[in-house]
Design goal:
- The protein contains 11 helices and 14 strands.
- The chain has 317 residues and is of the alpha/beta class.
- Helix 3 crosses helix 4.
- It starts with a strand and ends with a strand.
């Protein structure tokens, strides 16, 4: 393996709350599984009869749960991986390739699969500083769609730094979640025009407060629930504004998509990255070293897979 990010779904899988389970085996009498569902590796050897892959090819898991990616080496069947062609990765590093399947791909689909967006349309999203949120900002800008980006309230200096960071990515408007019900924000959003799509990864009160700002006939697409609170849709929004509520799960999309549609998406994402029009979210690199003392290796892993704080990614030599 070259690089493998740590995603919330990976931690849910460890907790046993994610629909996709790890592949367990018995090692020294213990039932164990390797964590991680996303990443990129390089082929170092191929078996007899393998004709679609060669030494040096970069590959990604074909689907979540195929094998754990938080490892230095693994043996897989050719049906478990997909090759990333060399021409797709011009000016793109391993971490970008290894993290394209979940967050950027989710953002790509959310902007295309629910509403026919045209340049000048508005999208509102919570969790705007998440991996998907940052990808939405950049991909929306690329197609001329404008974004209202909701983030959790935080101290003024910290909020100011985050607002500037998101605006550099292309955010049109950044707002604290505590401001969603303010008269100032209500006046501001009324002047913008139609808000056709809402993207929710939080749930609970924040999702409800955001949904109230959608225009009549708009769609709320939920792809996560970080607050672990339900998405509540008042009857008034259904009856009087005809708001549609949908759910999106990237793994389900992969199960039903065609190869051409998937490849077109990945190629476009990596092309944007290679041209400097898309960057992945900031990640703390957990650089693995086989010579690390056991206590240091355990501490490295514990920090990388802890809830909260910075997002991490394993990088292998």
């Amino acid at each position: 393996m070259l690089a493998a990010p740590v995603n919330p779904s990976d931690l849910n899988q460890i907790e046993g709350t994610y629909p996709v389970k790890g592949r367990f085996s018995i090692v020294a009498g213990e039932r164990v599984a390797v964590g991680g569902n996303e990443g990129v590796g390089v082929v170092t050897a191929v078996g007899n009869g393998v004709c679609d892959f060669a030494v040096g090819d970069w590959v990604v898991p074909r689907r979540a749960g195929e094998f754990g990616t938080w490892c230095t080496h693994t043996v897989v069947g050719q049906e478990q991986v997909t090759k990333v062609p060399l021409e797709w990765r011009h000016n793109v590093d391993a971490l970008t390739v290894g993290s394209m399947k979940v967050n950027p791909s989710t953002a790509y689909r959310l902007l295309r699969d629910y509403v026919d967006l045209v340049p000048g349309d508005w999208v509102i999203q919570n969790g705007a500083n998440s991996g998907v949120g940052r990808a939405v900002i950049q991909m929306a800008r690329a197609i001329g769609v404008r974004t209202i980006n909701v983030v959790r309230d935080r101290p003024p200096e910290e909020y100011g730094l985050l607002e500037r960071e998101l605006r550099l990515l292309g955010a049109d408007l950044v707002v604290r979640d505590t401001e969603l019900s303010s008269d100032t924000f209500k006046t501001q959003i009324r002047a913008l025009g139609a808000v056709k799509l809402g993207l929710n990864c939080v749930g609970g009160r924040m999702a409800l407060s955001m949904t109230k700002h959608l225009s009549a006939g708009a769609t709320l697409a939920s792809y996560g629930g970080m607050s672990r609170q339900p998405v509540v849709m008042p009857t008034s929004l259904l009856l009087f504004k005809d708001i549609a509520a949908r759910g999106f799960w990237m793994n389900r999309w992969y199960e039903h998509c065609g190869k051409e549609e998937r490849d077109d998406m990945w190629r476009e994402i990596l092309e944007m990255a290679g041209q400097g029009r898309f960057v992945t979210q900031p990640m703390q690199l957990a650089k693995w070293n086989d010579l690390l003392p056991l206590d240091e290796a355990q501490a490295l892993v514990a920090t990388a897979v802890a809830w909260g704080g910075a997002k991490h990614a394993f990088v292998f030599p």
